Amino acid sequence: MIKGFEQEVSKRQNVFSATQKPQGDKITRSSQRPRSSQRTKTTARSAPTGYIKKAAFIFSLSFFLFSLCFSVFAQILSIDEALDRLGGGNRAELRWDPFFASGTLVSEGYEAAFISGQSGESGMVLLDHREIMNLPLPYLEDGNLRFPENFINQIRNSFRRYAEEDSNRYRIAGIVIDPGHGGRDPGTVWDYRVNGRDIKVVEKDIVLDVAKQVHSMLSASFPDKQVLLTRDTDIFLSLDERVELANTMPLASNEAVIYISIHANSSLNRNARGFEVWYLSPNYRRDLIDRSRFAGSNNEVIPILNSMLEEELTTESILLANSILRRMVDTAGRHSPNRGLKAAEWFVVRNARMPSVLVELGFLSNEAEAILMSDEAYLKNLSEAVYKGISDFVAFFERSGGFTTLR
Ligand SMILES: [Zn+2]
To answer: Which domain holds residue 330?
Structure first.
């Protein structure tokens, strides 16, 4: 019986090589198939051997032809069929470079780049700059590009997976810009007489000017985010009112808010000058976890979660502060020294449950800096620096998905 079985296999392989060169997967398929013919033979032992051999041969030949048709003809798609699978003509497109015979399939912002091959050839496909897959390649036939079905299906499945991953990715949903002081609280105020001209610098006005410019630049570049000002006129706000806006912003579980308070400095030492950015010191422990969420559960976990979140917010606040400082050095560094990053149990930012920093634009108590800050062009430069620093931080964090979901 085993001898007959071997004959069957060798006979079938002869047929394959006569009709078409067997490919790797077809050999595998044919070598699996004899098991069923073996079963056929054992159950029909009494039938004449020649008849069984013939039946088995016809059966396996038709099976082979069927699978050949299925694999070669039914699994090849035209461009239109391929694009349909990837979401339809207005959502998916093919960018084809005839010189390099390479193409990129694009659907919903996701890309799959390939170089066309020969019919039946597999090769590397770069999927959305994230991963490389070895897939049966598209090929040219009479000037038309043909797509193996498996190639398109794998790309479609990968794009779906990326879309799902991306929808869960952390993002910054809101940016709150807080111009310090306002209304009956002017902040620091200084009068100078420079070259016969009177200059009065008022912190609440300077920081409102800068905050509004930062707000309008951020709103233009992040239309998908809520960019808010705690005040856009000369009004007084309590400290609670300032952070309330940010703390009560409705957020999805993968979203975060950042908070940037803008001030101008003052010192008894009239020589003190320069800009600096403050973040909240980890020494000041905020109550960051909503305890009602853990009602009835083990209360010992709350301080641990609280300090974990505190660490993360501190790290993020430092990164945000450094991004802003870096841009301020580029923009204002020639005119005003960088006093660096500072930690404080700062009264304005300490109640904000989010990465939060306080920017001191410069010293109004220093005559040279007061003159600088009464110049619209200088304030525009500072505004651009703060805006770029925030944008750098947003881009970095949305790429790396660095925010916690604990709130
Ligand atoms: Zn201030």
So the answer is: 171-400
